[in-house]
């Protein structure tokens, strides 16, 4: 971002005529938190490349099974640890929680270059991802307090999605450039540097205190087991959150097929090189980025319900069309798959980006940490199911697996449409939600 843009952000927001997706950056605290997210994601992207190379060094031709197991461990950590961590740290200052999680991730990343056994990789990956499962929901719960304005918060959601998409597109490129001058193990030190930068940026921000009855020393403390289940209970009993659970499954069904089978499609089915694999994966990011940039304006005019359901239909249709694209040859097949992956990315972003708005509007502010932790855990539970489905079924029938996962996404979308009440909440968000949204 240039100096002119930073000067522009220095003026009061009512005089700033920026694109909606950049409005949140006029707030100094959020600007630093967003920078922390970006540098941490850059480090995570380097670790993704480095982990694949490390698995090959340790297991050779069995590297795929090592990576598959590590990915399953990652999902287990997310599913199990996120709600427990949210309950365990509920009374701790959020800045300390964020910095502590970053330091734990840093320690795990620094240790990875020195492992000599596969089991050591599994242990360190669990530690790193458990720390991420603590960091991410806590970070998500801070943003609504830093950006109380609905428009700014919506822009922040799109910026967050944009950061994830840029990481998926740019980090492999940066890693490839670094590998020209450093060994693969050095990429883990880049990961550690990203987490260190994130911790320093979080320390520089005054994170708002939790607004919770639990802050009152005279208030009875909720038992740990009840706090651990609280976020999930919120999702199950809140009509506007139950459809989000179904849409999480739709995204995971299409996304798992793309992430697991792209390399097989490009190399085995279409006879292309590794560069085409990277281009096809980048196509997902391009579609998602385009949708994320368009959503702030779109969500001013169109309810989240319609945007998210249409996004789910788009990614479902794109996945269902994969067997037709696989029938094409060489260049035509690459172009067809690339176009479908752009649509999957756009639908993916349309479904996921507004979720934070819905959570923020549907639960009391005091329950936001638990609700975000539940969304983090429950969404990854869907991936824990669809990742092995995409892999195991894909080994037997690539086109048929696309059809099966498209059917899963379609079913989940239908369920979401039936569960979702058509009435929308008011645009202004207060500390307490509309009581009608909390009754089943």
From TrEMBL:
Membrane-topology descriptor: Multi-pass membrane protein
Gene Ontology terms, MF aspect: transmembrane transporter activity
Keyword vocabulary terms for this entry: Cell membrane, Membrane, Transmembrane, Transmembrane helix
Transmembrane segments: 33-56, 68-90, 187-207, 244-264, 276-295, 307-326, 332-351, 372-393, 399-420
Localization in the cell: Cell membrane
Chief localisation class: membrane
Cross-referenced SUPFAM superfamilies: MFS general substrate transporter (SSF103473)
GO CC term (a single one): plasma membrane
Protein name (Swiss-Prot/TrEMBL): Major facilitator superfamily MFS_1
